[in-house]
Amino acid sequence: SSGLGYLPIAAVPVYSATKAALQSFGTSLRYQLRDTNVKVFDVAPPLVETELHEAGNVKRERKLKGVSPERVAAETLR
């Protein structure tokens, strides 16, 4: 998911709303599956270096540093 699911910003309302929906869905699944051996986790990484991130940097004429998608995947699986 994304921190924008918890704290949306006006510049990307649909993106923020989809992240909030994912978090709500995860919470619902966690409760629904609480009596099973299935575990549901939310992952809301910090800023990730993706094409979307890069486009935002270009649009805002700044260079915010994020973490690599590979690092997010590795840390999530760990």
Can you describe this structure in just a few lines?
The protein has three helices and no strands. The protein has 78 residues and is mainly α. It is flat and about 50 Å long.
Structure characterization notes:
The protein starts with 12 loop residues before the first helix and ends with a helix. The chain has 3 helices and no strands. It is mostly helical and 78 residues long.
What is the secondary structure topology, with strand pairs?
Elements: H1 13-32, H2 51-60, H3 69-77
DSSP helical segment count: 3
**What is the helix/strand order?**
HHH
Give the structural class: mainly alpha
Strand content: under 5%
Global outline? flat
Spans where pLDDT lies below 50 across 5 or more residues: none
Q: N-to-C terminal Cα separation, in Å?
A: 17 Å
Overall pLDDT level: 86
Largest sheet: number of strands, sense, barrel closure? none
Which key phrases capture this entry?
78 residues; flat; mainly alpha; single chain
